[in-house]
Amino acid sequence: MNTRLIAIVASAAVLFASPSFADAKKDAKSQVEFGISVAQRGLWREAIYRWEKATQIDPSYAAAYNDLAIGYEHEGQLDKARKAYEKALELDPNNSQVRQNYELFKEINDRTAQKDK
Amino acid sequence: MIGPHRKTSNALPRFVLACIAAMLAALVAACGTDYFEIPIETPIQPKLDVSPFQRVLVIGFVAGGTDDVDANQETVRLLRSQLRTKSSLKVIDADILPLIEVARDQSQQTPSDDSNGPRGEGSAPPRANANGNGAGVGERIQGVALPPNIKDEKDLEPYERLFANTAYWKRIGEEFQNPLIVTGTVLFTNRSTSGFVQRDQETFDSLGRRRVMPMRTYMERKGFILRPKFVFIDGRTGATMYSESYREEILYNAQQNTPALSSYFELMDRLVPNFLSALSSQKIRGTRVLLK
């Protein structure tokens, strides 16, 4: 039992320390940064594509989900935006900026939901 | 001798400080900003599918409350002008119907009138309908006691049956080539209240620094309440497609004399985006924070 645990911990340590994992993180970050730069120029679809790619590369990247949620929100894809915000908060529950974005989003989303009643 | 010596003694700490500042700047530059505020516009889809309609008719409202504002006239005018600029539908300019009179006429009609059908059907202008001839066959508000003055929601309630009179609305629709009909109720009433209110009070300390402190003060206040209900009717069938009710309130210092009409417009200004979002897609502007 102990040897198995040690093996798991050791392999996890190797994986996290491996250059490929670090590269993936770096790649995801560069996708997010590129997404931000194009979003700032109004190219939201390209930004969404980049942020989606970032979440595929690194599914634990909370900021990528936050940015993706904003992109979806801007495109009016409110269901997708909500899921992305929730994922970002699941990964980083104490991030006040993600929470603030989500609260602002909910205000709009609740208004449209009210209309559907 | 003294001058250059002094210069050397000051230069070293300055050099050290400059180095530290440069290192800090390099560090900040390397880390970069991790968040970026960005303006966004969230598109909201309209509640109603208005694609079958090319035209919209804001026909009139059952209005009550204060006599200072003709809420029927003002609401129709405001909504028409908003729809002209902010929706793709063509706005029909027609006489505004005094729906209170229409409702009263319908309530006074006897069942035997039904056999004759609506007089002047298909040709009479809406104004003629207001004189009691427009109800048509079908559901009516006969036998319902309608209060002569509408002062509150209770008074307004019996009038709401007018919107269920599909035959009447269908006939109006036929007269205007089946538009989307916008009608409803508007109650604009006075309100006065007193109690503790929290206000920010500006103070200056002995050094002249400005401070804003929240203060609780007892105040007599007066103002208005606006309670509109917008009813959207399919002019082809006379059936209600959708309706929505709102309530907005504004209060002023009792000494402040604000005209009722300007308060009405201030309150309507808050509601108009909601009204428009039922008919046309709207964009809600906001700011979000992108993270690295």
Task: Name the descriptors.
heterodimer, A: 117 residues, mainly alpha, 0% strand, B: 292 residues, alpha/beta, two-stranded antiparallel ribbon, disordered N terminus
Describe the structure.
The complex is a heterodimer of chains A (117) and B (292). Chain A has helices spanning 2-17, 19-40, 44-57, 62-74, 78-91, 96-116. Chain A has 117 residues and is mainly alpha-helical. The mean pLDDT of chain A is 86. Chain B is α/β, with parallel strands linked by helices and 292 residues long. Chain B contains 8 helices and 8 strands. In chain B, strands 2, 3, 4, 5, 6 and 7 form a 6-stranded mixed sheet that branches. Chain B is flat. The interface between A and B is medium-sized, with 28 and 21 residues.
Can you lay out the helices and strands and say which pair or pack?
The complex is a heterodimer of chains A (117) and B (292).
Chain A: H1 2-17, H2 19-40, H3 44-57, H4 62-74, H5 78-91, H6 96-116
Helix pairs in contact in A: 2-3, 2-4, 3-4, 4-5, 5-6
Chain B: H1 2-31, E1 35-44, E2 55-65, H2 71-86, E3 90-91, H3 99-108, H4 113-116, H5 126-133, H6 153-156, H7 166-175, E4 180-204, E5 210-234, E6 240-245, E7 248-253, H8 260-279, E8 282-291
Parallel strand pairs in B: 2-3, 2-4
Antiparallel strand pairs in B: 1-8, 4-5, 5-6, 5-7
The first-to-last residue Cα distance of chain B is 56 Å
Helix content class of chain B: 25-40%
Largest sheet of chain A: none
Proportion of residues in helical segments of chain A = over 70%
- Oligomerization state: heterodimer
Number of separate strands of chain B: 8
